[in-house]
Records
---
Amino acid sequence: MAPVDPHSYTDGAHPVVSRAALAFYLDFAASTIHASAVLTLSAPHSGDLLLDTRALAVHSASTD
């Protein structure tokens, strides 16, 4: 199914993120930001979960 919003990869059939816990490390010497996010979904979900990561370098992902 094509996304409703042409500027996003969102899919209305997937649950939404209801809570996000963010942690940031700013490295001014290297001009970089390292961050982590723990996302809580509004409902249980199995299968693919699409997150819009445009212009981000994602190094790992895991589930509990």
Note: Residues 13 and 58 are 24 Å apart (CA to CA).
---
Amino acid sequence: MEEQRAAHAAELYALLTESALHEFTDSDPPSSAEWLEARFRRLENRCSPDGTQQWLNWVIRTAEGKAAGYVQATVNAEGSAEIAFVLGLPYWGRGLAEMASAQMMDILVRRHGVTRFTATADTRNARSVRLLERLGFKRVGSGDSRDASFECRAAAIRAPRKAPSPPERESRQA
């Protein structure tokens, strides 16, 4: 796992254009590699425009070094983080999203003082719901909405079932 940079757009663009990745989200595939690079460049600030949130993004790499997707977190001042993950179709079912999400959550606890995690998933997206449950998330609230909210306290984080990926590359963050 490594911090996401604008340069990663070229590697990730083809993976992120798969329509199946966007089936359960309200986002569209990136319109071009240039658009994705510009978006990633804006995210390099690691901070919301008003300075109230940290926007942290990491690229998931396979053992062979291929970019497979990304994990992201929006960290709020009160010690909570909303997390998300996107993994290219060729890499589904290998445990990569689970390992990267668990590694990210560990980083957020140790380096950013996060004590509570939240996530949103479409209830029809069984893979994402199962992944959140394996990480220790519980569904909160009720209702018939397709988007369900999940929550996990730092103490409830579950380690991934497989060996963790290599440690993230160290870098300096503001």
Note: The chain has one domain: 2-156.
